[in-house]
Structure formats: C-alpha cells, structure tokens
Amino acid sequence: MFEISRLSTKQPDFDAELDKLVSWDAHVGEDLEATVAEILHEVRHRGDRAVLDYTRRFDRSEAQGVAELEVSAARLRQALDNLPAEQRDALQEAADRIRRYAEQQKMADWSYTEEDGTLLGQQVTPLDSVGVYVPGGKAAYPSSVLMNVVPARVAGVERVIMVVPAPGGEPNELVLAAAAIAGVDRVFTVGGAQAVGALAYGTETIPAVDKIVGPGNAFVAEAKRRVFGVVGIDMIAGPSEILVICDGQTDPEWIAQDLFSQAEHDEEAQAILVSPDPMFLDQVQSAMESALPEMERSEIIRTALAKRGALINVRDLHEAAEVANRIAPEHLELSVAEPEKLAGYIRHAGAIFMGRHTPEALGDYCAGPNHVLPTSRTARFASPLGVYDFQKRSSLINCSPEGSARLGRIASVLARGEGLTAHARSAELRVEDQEGEQ
Amino acid sequence: MFEISRLSTKQPDFDAELDKLVSWDAHVGEDLEATVAEILHEVRHRGDRAVLDYTRRFDRSEAQGVAELEVSAARLRQALDNLPAEQRDALQEAADRIRRYAEQQKMADWSYTEEDGTLLGQQVTPLDSVGVYVPGGKAAYPSSVLMNVVPARVAGVERVIMVVPAPGGEPNELVLAAAAIAGVDRVFTVGGAQAVGALAYGTETIPAVDKIVGPGNAFVAEAKRRVFGVVGIDMIAGPSEILVICDGQTDPEWIAQDLFSQAEHDEEAQAILVSPDPMFLDQVQSAMESALPEMERSEIIRTALAKRGALINVRDLHEAAEVANRIAPEHLELSVAEPEKLAGYIRHAGAIFMGRHTPEALGDYCAGPNHVLPTSRTARFASPLGVYDFQKRSSLINCSPEGSARLGRIASVLARGEGLTAHARSAELRVEDQEGEQ
C-alpha cells in the first residue's frame, strides 16, 4: 500500500486543496540567513583563508591551501578516458544535442534606421565569465554539468569556472568527465555558501565571475540571493515537480513510471496526474502499487507521493489545462492524442513534453532542451536556462543631427516637467545647434 | 570652484583608484533587513489591515481602508486632460516611440523537426500580471511610468497594477497622466516595502502579480530582493551613472551639460569623462565651472561630482573602451568621430549613445530604448528592461516513437549512471515498445 491524495475539480474545496498541495514555502529561517551572511562576509574579507577554513570544517578536507582544491584539466580528461564507452558516448551525444538546441537560442544584434537617419537597436554580447555550482554527494549529476555549461559555451562566455563540493573525498567521476566534455576551464572542489562567496567576490585563487548558475541546498540558495546584484544569478530552485495530463489512453504503467521518475528525486519532489477519466486514475494507482516495491528508490518515492503527490480528476482536457496554468509546473507532460492542440492552451510551464512517447526523462538527459527549469510556480514569470542567460544586450542610439533636434524638443519639455534642467539643457544645446544651421 | 577627481591611466595606482571610484556598496545593514522582513511578514498575514497601518504611519495617510487608496481611471484621465497640450503631446510621442522600439524586442515561438519526426522548440507567452513600482515625492518621474508599463503592454501582459506612494498628499499629476497614456489597469497610492509585499502576496484589495518592476529606495530594493522567487523582479537598481568617451572634438559645453544631466539626479550619481586629450579635459572642466552656478540643481551636481565624478585621461580611444568595459556603465556616450567603430569594442554597457548629437537625455525620455538600465557594473551580466522581461519561454519536446526509442537508450545509460532508475524505466518502456514494433 502507498498513500497519494485524490482530488476532483468537482469538490467544493478544490481550489483551496490545490493551493495547499502545491504551496511551497522557501522561507529559510533567520539562523540560516545569519550563518550565510557571516560566511559571505568572511569570504569577502579573508578570501582564500576563509574558503579553506570552511571547506576543512564542513567538507572534512585536509587541504593546506585553496590551490590544492583545484582539479587539474588532466584529471578531468582522465575521468573521461576511464569511463565505460557506453557512458562516454551517451554523455557526448547528450552534449551534442544540448548544443544543437542551444544554438537556436542565440540572440543577435538588431537595429533600424528612421527617416531622418537616426539609428536605434540593440547589441548583444556574451558574459565574460560564469561560475557553475554543481551539488556534490548523492545528487552529483553529470547531466547538470552539461545543462549549465554548454549554453554558456554556445553564448561565447570566455571563462567557465565550476565548483563542486567533495565532502570527505573525491568528486564523482561522471561529474568530472562531464566537465571535460562540456569544456569547463577550471574546477574547484569547494561548495556551500563559501563557494558562492568565492565566485561572487573572488579570492586570491578563485577568480570572481559575472554570474553564478546551478542548483544547491538551502545555504547555496540563500547565498545566491544575497550576492545577487554583485553578480547575476539564475534562479532560486525549489523541489522538482511534474504534472502529467493524460486522456486515459496511455499505458498506465508508462504514466506510473513517469510519475515515479519525478518522485524519486527527493522527499519533497512533486508528482501529479490529471485526467478526465477516473477509471484511468485507478489504473495508474494500481500500476504504481505493483511497481513501487521493485523501485530502487522506493522509500523516497513513497514519501514524496504521500507528502506532495496527487491524482486529480477533471471534467475535460480544457479544465486540465486550466489546472496546469494554476500550478505553472516545472515539467508538464501532455500524454494525449492531440498534444499540439492542448499545448496552445498552456500559458505557464517550464517544459512541455508532448505525446505519449515523450517522457520527462528524455528531457532530463538528452532531448536537447535544458533541464534547468523554473520550479515552485515560477514558470509564471521565468524561463528555462538558455543561451540567453549568458548573453546581454546594450541599447544602441545614434541620432542624426536632425533627429537629435526633433527628439531634443520632446525631451526638453519632459525634462522640464520633471524639474531636471540639466537634462533639458543637454538636449536643447543640440536643438539650438540645428536651429543655427537653418 | 568645484571639486572633481582627475585620473590618468598612466598613473601607477590607476586600477586601484578606478576601483575605488566606481565601487558602490549596496549593503543595507541588518536593521533595514529586519524592518523589511517584518513589514513583509505583516502584509502577508494581515493583508489590507497591515498595508493601511503602514501607509497611515509612513505616508501620513488618513484613509480608512485600502480601497480609498485606489486612484480611479477617471482620475487618471482627468490628470491627462488637464495637462498643457505641449506636455500631453510630448508624453504621447514618447510613449509611441517607446512602443515602436519595444515591438522589435518581442520574442517569438520557434521549433525545428529532426529527421525521425521529433520536434524541439520553445513557446513564448506573456506574463499574466505585472506590478510597477513608481517612486513618489521628488523623484516621481512620468517617464519611468512609460518605460516600465509600455513594454509590459507590448508583451501582452493582461493586468498592469501600479503603486506609487503619495506621502501626505496627492500623487504627481504628470505621473497619473503617464499612467493613463501607458494604459495602467489599476493604481494604488501605496509605497515602500508594504507595496512590494502587497503586490507579491496579494491582499483583499490589491491583487497579487507575477512580477514586480520599477525602482525604489533601499526599503523597496530590499523588499524586492526578499520576495524574489514568490514573484519575478527586474533588478536591484543602484545610483545612476554616465561614462562619456570623447575624442576632444565635441563642444566642451555640450559635454559639460551631458555630465551634469547625470550628476543632477542625486548626490550618489556618477558622471565620468574619459578622453585621450588632456587639454579637452581642462576645457570641459572650465565649461562646467562656468555653467554650474546657473544650474537649478547646482548643489546636487556639485556634491555628486565631488563624491563620485572624474575626468580621466587615457592614451587613446582603444584604452578608453577598455576603461568602459571595466566600469560597465549604465549609460555610455561615445562622443567621437566614428562611434560605430568604437561601439564594436564595447562589451559591457546598459545603453550606448553614439555620436556628438546623441546626449543621454534623449534616451532618458523619448528616443525609444528603455531608460531602465543595469547600474553599478551589472551591465556585465544584465540587460535594459525590455519586452523580453514580460514574456517567458516554455520548452517544447514532441518525440516521434522512433525518436523516443533512440533518445531513450541514451537517457537510460545516463539515468542509471546517476542512480535514478525510475528515470531509466520511464525511458526504457518507450524503447521496449518500439523494439516490440520491429
């Protein structure tokens, strides 16, 4: 037996129950805030010394200096060379596909010229340097290395620095191999808020970067929130979620595994199935019941489903899309006959997996789109990680003398309306210049 | 007499002096952090009641309910109708030009189909709702209303809510008129951290939004940082800055006013001139000297120039571009003979004003590009506010059965490498299905 919530949009308290189900409080508590503030302060002012102290304390490292925490390029190469061919090929193919998709996202310069010769546009440039945080320990995922590093490389970022904690030992071999394939420039086995601080402020050994991306625990998330502004950050990631909408015509066993694939991440992960067919919900529940004992991570799955999982009965697929829009899920699977049609009703989702043959797992590894996606309803305003996160735009304005005189008259009126007379004078000088010409 | 730093790239301590000059510590102190945390907590849990209490206390309002703080559409219209025709026309023309430029930024869906029929792409959708914070009091700028609201409207955002504090009275008429022109849906005269909290969490009267944009004081900035994740935010704005690069051939009086137009914003604003011609630096200094007493905001300008202004001598324009890239200025004016050529060397800047006839003031009001720009060196990783800030992307993946089988084999290897066997099973079920077909 296993536990999972059953809901129906027909029940009068559905909205409240749904809110309860998907709510996720990211609040971290004042103690953690204070600890992170102190770590960042120490790293900022004591540099290497502080990074080393924390790494020795938290990760049981015996290093005598931060330089010892750097992983050499040769070591990365060695990790790659030592992988079984099957894994090496799979990583390489995944990287190639992620790269091909990312190439499509590259932003380009644009401009237009007005009748009087005034040019307006935007110039696009890559960030100079990026830091990628990779979690260590159990959740050390080589796929995350590819997903964070490849788009940065495609954007043209010159320096990519990776940090990965290696508590009490060596980092994961697959993670090092992925770093070699993705083309990371330097790797340090440092983690936690101290790693974020080092990348934000720079130390004697670890160079400061312009943006920090990659998931981490509550300390890492809080540290990223605090250094935002000094550097860019990607997003504050919450637990992973999947919402599957099924018309009832997909093999229940497939759907059961699709839900498990999310639930197995951790106890807070969320897996929800929505269907207009209540019999199908029963069938999937039975399929989960049968398959659960055989799953290697059955205890995590069981806990996650009991805490945050749900089977939701809706009136029709249109209502299913409405539920999806309210949840704004990280992953949305449309396991239906006409997924293109249904996708047209979806306003908020990190990634949309369309059709019965597109399980989320393909997107997690190798389909091409990024697996770094907005969680905890942030798909209402945020996008998947992409090349565009590693590029930025500069506005271009090049006024012809005539254009400047024309715009200057408008600017002068508005600037004087705001009481900013130097703004007005600066514009008027160009107006007067052109009036002198006539 | 007025004070301004003189620097030269030839001096041995130039790098250190430049760092000192441009450094800006956004750190707000623990007291302010605690105050903002409390205000947000109160607004989240007591809703309207808390918003009303704070507004009565901080803004000396005598309102008896939050509904009284709403400004009606008729009142906005009235403000617009009552404006002198010259101001109304200028606002309207500015809005039109901002809209025309913003239209160019609209992101569109894209996709490609692989040989086996697998479709990959991204779907673009607007945010549902946006909150725009407009500062009150002296710095109530109608141009900011246009710059924040128009791109949201172009993106297709359905609900735009504006908040603007009105300490001890009515909001600025020009601000209300700009709200009418830009097409704001609802306006509340609420400000500070309580306004940010209301927009993030929603109250009985003020609806929650998906993203909050717009500048504010330290309380507003800290509140935005804290609600980031619950809602999207634009950026944490620091003081405004301009860097002018001039070859020495522009009228020194023009450059003096361009620098003043930045310095007059507030005492922390930064105005820097870089030129390879030391004589020109002297001429601009003299021009500033002569013009300063006549400026209406001369005391603010004087303080800003003394605290953070500088005249920097460089070896050549190439070195000037290097200085600009280190500073990553919000506004960069290229007052040179060949601005297109020089712009090609610029990697980091919020907006680039090219040529002698393109003073920053035109961009502040009506050229078209947004005046909400990355400050405090954040142009290293951030972009001007744009339509793209009010749209988001969802990845699209639609695998053909053959594509699913091919990708499933790769995903299975990688998932098992990461110990995520439900991921592997979910992929393998589709592989097996296709193997059964053959």
From TrEMBL, chains A, B:
GO terms for molecular function: histidinol dehydrogenase activity; NAD binding; zinc ion binding. GO terms for biological process: L-histidine biosynthetic process. One of its GO terms (cellular component) is cytosol. Substrate binds at residues 240, 262, 265, 331, 364, 418, 423. The keyword Oxidoreductase applies. It is an enzyme of class 1 (oxidoreductase). Keywords: Amino-acid biosynthesis, Histidine biosynthesis, Metal-binding, NAD, Oxidoreductase, Zinc. Pfam families: Histidinol_dh. Binds 1 zinc ion per subunit. Zn(2+) binds at residues 262, 265, 364, 423. Belongs to the histidinol dehydrogenase family. PANTHER family: HISTIDINE BIOSYNTHESIS TRIFUNCTIONAL PROTEIN, HISTIDINOL DEHYDROGENASE HDH. Catalyzes the sequential NAD-dependent oxidations of L-histidinol to L-histidinaldehyde and then to L-histidine. This is Histidinol dehydrogenase. It comes from Alkalispirillum mobile. The lineage of its organism: Bacteria, Pseudomonadati, Pseudomonadota, Gammaproteobacteria, Chromatiales. The gene is hisD.
